[in-house]
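does this look right to u?? adenosine monophosphate version
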Amino acid sequence: MAGISRPRGTDDLLPERLAALEHAITVGTQVSSRYGYRRLQTPIFEASDLFVRGVGDATDVVRREMYTFEDRGGRSLTLRPEGTAPVVRAFWESELRQSPLPVRLSYSGPMFRYDRPGRGRYRQFHQFGVEVLGESEPELDAEVIAVAWRWLAELGVGGTSLQLNSIGDEACRPRYREALLQHFSSHLADLPELDRDRLARNPLRILDSKDPEMAPLLESAPRTTDYLCQDCVDAFDRVQEALRAYGIPYQLNPRLVRGLDYYQRTAFEVWHESLQGAQNSLFGGGRYDGLSEVLGYPKCPGVGFAAGLERVALLSRVAEPPPEPQIFALSADRAAAGAVIAVAEELRRSGLRVVADVGSRSLRGKMRTAERAGVDVVVIVGEAEMGQGAVTVRSLRAGTQESAAAAALLEAVGPLLTRSESGLGGVT
Ligand code: AMP
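got this back:
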């Protein structure tokens, strides 16, 4: 077909997948609310500086992946590549900053990265995330992990492993960075160009390299946990103790770093056995105590996670199918369109899902459409019945048909319905 196609790396979320995504959001919101988190929504675009500063101009996200444009007023705006910097900004710009700390928030919505599209990797994708702002207790790191873990459990997602690391803080990270530089500099000629570039700009990121040639060098690279200062060691111990209290198993992974610059101390990812290679991460998170100041606000510690909803929804086994219509209302007679609409509205007022077929096809054609839609009941408004204030109610399941007084329509239809009531999740 010669029509206009969707942009590369985007996807249309058709009803089934959208229902799965929204279900994941609904459950995430419910689970996190049990821990005291409240939902907020920030704009989809922000001042570009928010991400240049907040994410870091040495990161892949800022250097290569941002959708940045100038608006008609000459401002540089960026479609958000992630949700944490916007949440921190919203905290400072609103009354949230006066609320008792820590503030617990959750969010969901589309994110945009000019990434190389592939399996499970899009240029527009969706995330659900939580953030705790205003307190640096390591037990909070375990709390956000617990929210993530319970959320997956309620969605029926198994086969996951929690990868945990500490990447140090401003006191000990310089030493670690130095050790990394030394390790990789002696193999400079063997490094792929991208990784040479990373080494020059942000050595920690090199541990994220997915290049198979890098595997032996990564294996022998210094480990973050060998370079932690005492404060970071103590904090990491408390995170692990709290995780044990939550009963959450974890795997220490000293090679785990986060792609974003503002993380310090706890970094974690949840991996799934079915997701391969670079796409094996369901979500990532960590502590970002340095972010607020980088954005020009007062110091404000924070911790959170963001999950890729496309990936979570794909694995969740309990997604409800989108609710389908239960009833078709129709007439053989075009002139009865008004009566068909009125009958359908009457039924909808009782919460039923009704399609009003006011097309000009034959009665037989309309009946066939109703059958294909799989509805339980067809309400036929005929000229003869209309005159007597009645309609015909046909059960497609039982193959029976009866005349019902318009005033008693609900009583006639109710017992014939088999398609369950199911509400829609929140639309985001
Ligand atoms: P990040 O913000 O990079 O830590 O990503 C958090 C999560 O978002 C990842 O674990 C993925 O599940 C998801 N994610 C990140 N980038 C993409 C993408 N391009 N397409 C789909 N999901 C993504």
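The longest strand covers residues 103-112. idk if thats expected tbh
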